[in-house]
Fold each of these.
Amino acid sequence: MEHTKKKQGRQTFRFTQPVRVLSSACFGGAMEQQGPLGRYLDGYDETGKFDGENWEESESHLQRQTIEKAVEKAGLTIKDVENLFCGDLLRQMTASSFGVKSLGIPVFGVYGACSTMGESLLLASVLLEAELAEHVVAATSSHYATAEKEFRFPLSYGNQRPPCATWTVTGSGAVVLKRDKEQKPGVYVTAATPGKIMDYGITDKANMGACMAPAAVDTISTHLKDLDRKPEYYDKIVTGDLGNVGSDILLDLLKAEGYDITKQHMDCGMTIYDQKFQDVHSGGSGCGCAAVTLAGYLLQNMREGKWKKILFVPTGALLSTVSSNEGDTVPGIAHAVALEWKE
Amino acid sequence: MEHTKKKQGRQTFRFTQPVRVLSSACFGGAMEQQGPLGRYLDGYDETGKFDGENWEESESHLQRQTIEKAVEKAGLTIKDVENLFCGDLLRQMTASSFGVKSLGIPVFGVYGACSTMGESLLLASVLLEAELAEHVVAATSSHYATAEKEFRFPLSYGNQRPPCATWTVTGSGAVVLKRDKEQKPGVYVTAATPGKIMDYGITDKANMGACMAPAAVDTISTHLKDLDRKPEYYDKIVTGDLGNVGSDILLDLLKAEGYDITKQHMDCGMTIYDQKFQDVHSGGSGCGCAAVTLAGYLLQNMREGKWKKILFVPTGALLSTVSSNEGDTVPGIAHAVALEWKE
């Protein structure tokens, strides 16, 4: 099969256009503000309500205000944004639809469970690579209260969670991308590896780290192989929400593939909360987990020169309550996006 | 704001790469086989079960076999397909995830409710325009039994439907796109207009045609304005599943915008079933409605020379049972894709 030069190996894209991160923004709730990354938030609502009349509306408001803030930080207005890629965890993606409908931007709804920030960032970059837009926004959100209702039990049941369970982040992250022909210094999306769905047959939906780890292994190892890179190429290889349990599996399985990423690896789910003082069991999760960590902590540290090259690999568990109740496994997916500082 | 030449007007993409429809396939259930488009199906299962143990698995099998058939008809193998864009109506998109996971193709999950075939086709074309792939598949599915369970009542309740309600198509359509540098004669994706979310405040989820019509109006009029085209440019302007009620609204509102598309307009929902002899009330609906009509009837008639130019505009209603139960409106979205025969 013939390939263009932009396509590397089996499944990696190499962007030839200057896809620059113009700005990013993130908001969270009380838990996220109290956590170690709290100071990277553009704002928070300690009630988690964001002026919504119900939790779904709260998440919609959260996502919209995050997008608006990112656009404002880019020095743009909403009218300058040509396309929006967004998605969330709720059935039929209503947090996003109701959140962004008033913005009047052509919308592409995307779904990759908690890997959604990777998918939206990747596809937004593809649109710029195709030279079909100049300014595009990639965003996603999750909310603890909507996710518990969607996937588990109403909050008032107060159900117990096993130690391998994760805590859904109340948060949203948005990134404004620009095809920057002037190539100003900044963070650029340079490559990306869209993920395949991996299913190792795990059915325990309370152990999503284990369900998603094989997908992260496949995407990271494919990315490194396709670009003939060693883990050391990156200052950080950042998974989304594998948590303690999933991260251990990731490191073990990647070693078996010949890649030791122990030194580079960081998991957003293990970083966003204080694992000593915040009772989140295996870590944070949800689309917002990787999105908030990227839009706040990761990009800020890149701007400050701490890290030059990051491989961002959010992971998603492709289940629903219906699939789980019918006894199905929990397949996973992970999309990798390479971010590099360029002078 | 600066625009590349590929971007026309406010929001229309013009593809400069040869994005050719290499093949298409569609499968349906008994209702679809008995309907006027039955002879365009590649196959059907009159039980609707497609060897599934439950309806969700049935839809997954249906979507996978449609993709496999389309790839086979293209003279390719699954390994030749570099990327897959797919989605469906079920919560967390499980019909697609479980359907395609065994194919081993990097997957982009997309959600635009019943406009999903438009979104998947549009984004697959963008990927080819970016020269990041040579062969991409766009697909979607819906299933009467899973959709009734997801959005309405269990089938065994036998609930009554109002005359403006539509019947969810059991069906899947898949299209294989190729960046055809040889530019062989065939159907090409030449332009596309991604849609904005439109909300006219309608809350009647049994009248989805009315909810979606404003989005179709906005996308079609924007497309024609952006490209400075009259409706006569197209042999057919094809909406997805507006049905009888929504189609009347579409024609009226477009006339108010200065566009009379009465002669060109066709609605997949009004075409896929026999409105005299099949009791579907306002017509067919679901992601599969536009997808089956495109992959079967529309593309076959283009191949046979009956139509040279089609504007395909599937429409989606962005609701969930939760948003409806909370009293929310039903916003709509429509994505337009221009298909043209080239010698």
Amino acid sequence: MEFAGRLRGKIINSLTIYFKLEKFIATNLLWKRFRIVYPLLMNILHIDSCALGDHSTSRQMTSAATAALTAAHEQATVLYRDLAASPLSHASGPLLQVISQRWDADIPMNAELRAEALQSVSLLQEFDEADVVVLGAPMHNFSVPSTLKAWMDRLLELRAATAIALGPRRNDVHVVLVTAGCGMLGLEPAEELMHHHESQLRAAFRHLGIQHLDMVRQLADLQQVLEFKRAA
Amino acid sequence: MEFAGRLRGKIINSLTIYFKLEKFIATNLLWKRFRIVYPLLMNILHIDSCALGDHSTSRQMTSAATAALTAAHEQATVLYRDLAASPLSHASGPLLQVISQRWDADIPMNAELRAEALQSVSLLQEFDEADVVVLGAPMHNFSVPSTLKAWMDRLLELRAATAIALGPRRNDVHVVLVTAGCGMLGLEPAEELMHHHESQLRAAFRHLGIQHLDMVRQLADLQQVLEFKRAA
């Protein structure tokens, strides 16, 4: 019990520190000054989720987008995450309870759950720290890959739980969503299905607080979408 | 190499036997005679996927549907599968290659992959053997739960790979989809989002060969949907 208590104390501390830090960043006016040098230090978060490896055109397109961005911004740093190669677990009931802050504090939290909760927080953090997120979110078997869904579950629940506490956030994050190119069934996805797929994604990212979202289906559209960075 | 060769031989044999059996059942006219006693031996496949346990109204609704069906058919057998409690792994690239019959036979298959492939086949088999499938497919974070997606990936890819080889199939399977009731974000899902969610599911099950599909959002609708069984 003593040990469990300390463990619980630790995760609550870690989460509290994170929430306080976030609040500090969100409310302190000082950070806005740092924004002046921000364009030089552009953070790119590049995420792939199609399970088909290099065959996938979604991977080729996210790759092309990241290459174009780094070519235009020499100081850019890229963080790459491959959700298919290193999948997150399916978000379990207990994990959802912890990250949505509904965990009953009387129940000891095991080490695995604690690690998963902290990982979820750091996933949201790396998303929030990015200036541009290049995300491969293809329609595979009529919806997003399950690995991408597991990632979205964590971010959406965490954002929902902390949205009220944290107040206004940065609203200049650009998300570039590549929605085509993980076809396995050999069918061209019908326009209507793609429209539904993209609408659901748009709603999800709106929920994450994203105001600048571009959908890219074809390589030809990529150029136009990346124009916003040329101007910056 | 010798051992790997034998392993490979085994899985190919297992899959081949399955495909042959399926073909036999699908093409042999004799099986139609057995259909006479079928209504007495109704097979119900009951699947839940919401991670929120008994709080989830989708679980309460699938449960109510199964209870109503078994009450009307005393001889019914129920197979229950809880995708949240016993999640399937995310369908990996190699697994998708195996079940869509694109695996390169020169590459040895490891035991885990072989087990996953055989499990996928048996998942499709239990789906095909059901007369009624009662499936909790709620919209959770803007799409199906990732655990349900992992299940659908296996069935859709396997069906696509075997559709041409097997010819006509049973077309009297009823699927009852419960699409509401796994809300975590505390928002009532907008009508438009629910419409998109249901359209994608409808397309997926059409792809699985399902002609009788009912969507249920509210407990009140369940009664009407289950009428088809009263008539049978």
Amino acid sequence: MDVLRIPSVSTDPEHKADMVRQAEWIRARLERAGAPVADIVPTAGHPLVIGRWNVNDDKPTVLIYGHYDVQPADPLELWETPPFEPSIRDGYVYARGSADMKANLVATIQAVEALAAQYGQPPVNLIFLYEGEEEVGSSNLYAYLAEHGGDVACDIVISADSGFPAVDVPGFFVALKGMCGCQIDIKTGETDLHSGGYGAAVPNANQVLAQLAATFHDDEGRVAIEGFYDRVAELTESDRAEIVQASAVQQDVIAESGAYALWGEPGYSPAERIYGRPTLDINGMWGGFTGEGAKTVTPCEAHIKITCRLVPDQDPMEILELIEAHVRKNLSPGVQASFQRKQGIAYPYTIPRDNWALQRAASVISDLYAASPVFFRVGGSVPVTSEFKRYLDVETVSLGFFQPGTPIHAPNEWFRLNDLPMAQRGYAAVIEALGE
Amino acid sequence: MDVLRIPSVSTDPEHKADMVRQAEWIRARLERAGAPVADIVPTAGHPLVIGRWNVNDDKPTVLIYGHYDVQPADPLELWETPPFEPSIRDGYVYARGSADMKANLVATIQAVEALAAQYGQPPVNLIFLYEGEEEVGSSNLYAYLAEHGGDVACDIVISADSGFPAVDVPGFFVALKGMCGCQIDIKTGETDLHSGGYGAAVPNANQVLAQLAATFHDDEGRVAIEGFYDRVAELTESDRAEIVQASAVQQDVIAESGAYALWGEPGYSPAERIYGRPTLDINGMWGGFTGEGAKTVTPCEAHIKITCRLVPDQDPMEILELIEAHVRKNLSPGVQASFQRKQGIAYPYTIPRDNWALQRAASVISDLYAASPVFFRVGGSVPVTSEFKRYLDVETVSLGFFQPGTPIHAPNEWFRLNDLPMAQRGYAAVIEALGE
């Protein structure tokens, strides 16, 4: 429970000392579990905690990934009990960071501790890599991987930053979308103008932007950026079957969306669109007078923020270039556009379903729960998986034990107490299987 | 000068007493000029000042229109001398309301006073109608015209709320655009959604709005609302000639616009577009996340504010209905749109160029300045002219004497002192001509 008392809010500079305390807590816990190496590794931001436990050069090396930072707890008034004073009620512990992801993190250490107690040492070589900046983009982890990737070379990554696809249904994240985005600023002149005096004879930046934004999709819902789909790996029959299977147990995201209608790329089911097809979203758009009442202005500036969710084998940097080329091609003469690329791109990631580690992990989780684990995809982006692929050239098995429904970035986040020993047993079983 | 010392700012409730003082000042000035009737007429807002001077039932009745309210003086720090302490420098008087339009207003009274002194009484029957709410929409004047129009029945209106089309070039406003507008609120669902979890499968309100807004114009710049041009009186050869003639002396609005390019309806010159063709402007547009950085949201709401500038014989109410029908027709299923109509519509107005009063006025102004006055149009809207047409069924001759370049709604507004006696002589000559 102590781990839940430290407010390791990575985004808030006031918690800088708490981040150090939290890192030290984990380092000490690793040491207590028996890890021969357990270090705090400073970065430009919050420190990494890196542990090592080499047992046998003939055994595979498994890197266990997690993060010890948490989302801010605001709005505080909506918490039934204080976010950093863990409260147990009816078999659940309520605390910020309980599900995302301190319970899983501690369970990985407990699992190794238990294996070492049972066999004298772990059954594989282990690297523990816990970062403190997942909630703020992981840029210093990536910098570390870029510079010191060789120090954490491994055969497989187990990411504990995950949860169950449905209540009491275990599963593995097998595909995550990539992401890129930009803000486009349109300028048609040096100053906003009176619509009566000028509106008929000069471009209106809002109109230019609307007409431009309307070219991003075709009438049916396909992204109409030239080249956007060129590298997309078409969904196979087995991909479609996997999505159907996962959808059968996953929450009905559409029903709970509050949307009045479905929409999207023709030829694909809503689940296929969300889990298997790339998208372009207009996250924000603004220009001219947006206050109460009316102002008869012909604005000279308008702005749009877009992000794309990407699938294999799209390249986020290339997609940004395609978008910029599309915009330049579609601009009228005398209209200026500038581009600000969003920080924190993500490459799409998918683990081959026949990956040795995934198969062994699935097998032991199946035994543990007496139920086949679900291979499920998320529409969101967890860039660390693709970054491990990029820098370490290894696949990542994503396995975590929080139940869906816990409000991981909202008040009253919880973790079910019974899931903690199951998580420990689950991670131990997987690590043991990887050593066989 | 006293008239310029009263801060008659109609929009500011703190100046309510000043508005009454200003109205009383004008009433007293009318009385001093000899008007047999000079009344303060209360309204739901600031009072009207109404004077009457009937001389002979065989003579035409001329209504002189003006307004005694002024724009706020902010930003005060940009005034070289205080806005309500008139300062004379190099032949100009600097004060808020000097050009717009206290000098003209006083000149109309002086003109009548001079005519009465010369001939014993004015050469026509006169109604003086001065309002205190022109800068805030004139709604109480319109209410008065709707209810008591018969009390101010007349043969012609002279509006003194005008200026010269070019420095030292006299002229008459002959056409003013109408206006209507609305805000359209698009809703695609009950809540903003995570673009990864939902973006591929539900409508994005920003995208819906952009695609909708892009249908307002065709690719070449015509308004593409069905029926929009149906009632537009096509520009005749003489209209085009008039616009060319006026453009030759008017300021080059395009050159000073700061716009990087021209734009607009094909088949018409920029001046023809501004002065003779209707337009639709997107004044404001917004939806989703518009702050710093990125937020991967699929928004459920987006908003747009539009106004149209209209020409004869378009009807603003009908145009609003056409826009709403266009929007409804172009919405995808499951997208909701609501409409808020802008307050203060304006009908387009144009005075027939062969109107007897306009012709006589042009003739005497030509003599006074030894130069042909210019018939010029404005792209903006001065609704009072069309309201006189609507409620009193009379035409309005717009004649005023401020020079272009004076910042009528900005700091350091000025009126050239030499223009005051010219204004008085000009109004007197026109009134005299109308009595012949």
Amino acid sequence: MQLSPDWVVGFTDGEGCFFVGIQRHPEMTAGYQVLPEFTIVQHERDIQILYALKRFFRCGVVRQNHGDRYAYRVRKLSCLRKVIEFFEKHPLKTKKNVDFRKFRRVVMLMEQGKHLDKGGLLEIVEIAKDMNTANRPALEKVVEFLKAG
Amino acid sequence: MQLSPDWVVGFTDGEGCFFVGIQRHPEMTAGYQVLPEFTIVQHERDIQILYALKRFFRCGVVRQNHGDRYAYRVRKLSCLRKVIEFFEKHPLKTKKNVDFRKFRRVVMLMEQGKHLDKGGLLEIVEIAKDMNTANRPALEKVVEFLKAG
């Protein structure tokens, strides 16, 4: 199956998710790990679409998500860079583009190593908190923890 | 906002719904009304996408759905014909295409007036029952009713 750039943009406007996970990780200097990911989840009947996306971006993995759901997932920074460059060239048309820009900012800060110190991490958490996909109460606690520490 | 055909296909693969409603309607000869509809539902933040779809197909309406959700909806047979011709020319890539073909079959039968007699209606209900979007238990009851009558 061949996917066109416009189809990929339309499908991502519908089904794509730009998410920034922030996980407790005591071994890291700032105490937290930043895990940005781009995912598209489908019922297993459409698993071939997920593999087509993997071929399209030449990056990412297809994994079982929950039950009969599968996910195409990109986590590696070098792969996220490719995904970001694609959506810079072919912008999303829905308000998901707002989340995309915040996501891109987080990835850029990580590429600069800013997530490794507390100041940069705080900046990232504030951006993540402001995303549509955010778990705000959990991120509020991270902010409190970082400001208290 | 300008939409391209491929974007519309990708977005519909993600968010579109081909649905065949069958409603009790005692005034109709066969006792039921067939209501095929093509819908795309979005959060109100993306209402401009729904209006762009309406302009793209030159058909359909944008209406509030539930709460903060809005729907682009096509119900008129002449408009569904336009939508069908578009997706014949630009096929969906997900398994939603299977539902689309069943939906198209129902619309064709209606264009031929087959929904107005019991035999045609039964055929339509059997197709609708087999769709991914179907409320199977309700449609089973319609079949029982038609076969008993």
